[in-house]
Design brief:
Elements (H helix, E strand, L loop, with lengths): L20 E5 L2 E6 L7 E6 L8 H11 L4 E5 L17 H6 L7 H13 L5 E7 L1 H12 L3 E7 L17 E6 L7 H14 L4 E6 L19 H18 L1
Parallel strand pairs: 3-4, 3-5, 5-6, 6-7, 7-8
Antiparallel strand pairs: 1-2, 2-4
InterPro entries: AB_hydrolase_fold (IPR029058), CMBL (IPR042946), Dienelactn_hydro (IPR002925)
Organism: Agelaius phoeniceus
Protein name: Carboxymethylenebutenolidase homolog
Length: about 240
């Protein structure tokens, strides 16, 4: 049985009033937030197991939009039920079989088309959290249209050298105390990227941080964690600004 990978309590979340709105794109629902001025730069946000309606992920969408990007979080679960904090972890492997973070190519294409044709986006980046971090790693190996990626604590899958041939600049963010991702795995990722990766990449581990740390809303942060959470978010935005 898998240990509960989320150490923060997803049940007791403060309410969040969103700044964006929901749209229908082809067969996908999505949450979109636009900056106050017009821009041809966009960022796709890939949600975690709690899905596209989870308040924390909408907070992140609004945050990125505030930095001048058309920001969109599509429902990568295509209308199926996201994982909830009341589900049993024993059932997680089965749930994951039907929610594979490596099977997001079609949805990414639908969203890229929408951003280019309907929003006038010319440069598009992507950031994903946990389940979404795995999806970002996958997409940065497959989709050259994504100018840059940020993968936040996506579990590291080791299968082949192909996992390290990133097409565009990618930044990997991890928490030091994440018990779903060991430091050994992170060191190995760094080694392999040194060997095989031909584009800029960065790996950073934030002291004392658990899985899921970077998407907490300000009122849900513990004082000791706050500087690291804010730093991780600044680093994420800086990476996007550098390449998108």
């Amino acid at each position: 049985q898998m240990a509960d990978p989320f150490l923060y309590n997803t049940g007791e979340r403060s309410h969040y009033g969103c700044l964006g709105h929901e749209v229908q794109i082809d067969y996908l629902k999505a949450y979109v937030c636009r900056p106050s001025f017009s821009t041809d730069k966009a960022v796709i946000v890939v949600h975690d197991v709690f899905g596209w309606q989870f308040p924390d992920i909408r907070y992140i969408v609004d945050l990125i939009a505030g930095h001048g990007y058309i920001t969109i979080c599509p429902d990568f679960f295509k209308g199926t039920k996201p994982w909830t904090s009341t589900d049993h972890w024993a059932d997680f492997p089965d749930w994951l079989k039907n929610h594979d973070p490596m099977k997001v190519d079609k949805e990414a294409d639908v969203v890229l088309k929408y951003l280019k044709e309907q929003c006038g986006a010319k440069k598009i980046g992507i950031a994903g959290f946990s389940w979404g971090g795995m999806a970002v790693h996958h997409l940065m190996l497959k989709n050259p249209q994504l100018a840059a990626g940020v993968s936040l604590y996506g579990r590291i899958v080791r299968d082949s050298e192909e996992r390290y041939r990133l097409l565009n600049p990618t930044f990997f963010i991890f928490g030091e105390k994440d018990h779903t991702i060991s430091l050994d795995q992170i060191f190995l990722l760094e080694d392999k990227l040194k060997q095989y990766c031909k584009v800029p990449y960065k790996i950073k581990v934030y002291p004392g941080q658990v899985h899921g740390f970077a998407q907490l809303k300000p009122e849900d942060m513990k004082p000791d964690d706050k500087p690291y959470i804010e730093e991780a978010r600044r680093d994420m935005i800086d990476w996007i600004k550098m390449f998108v």
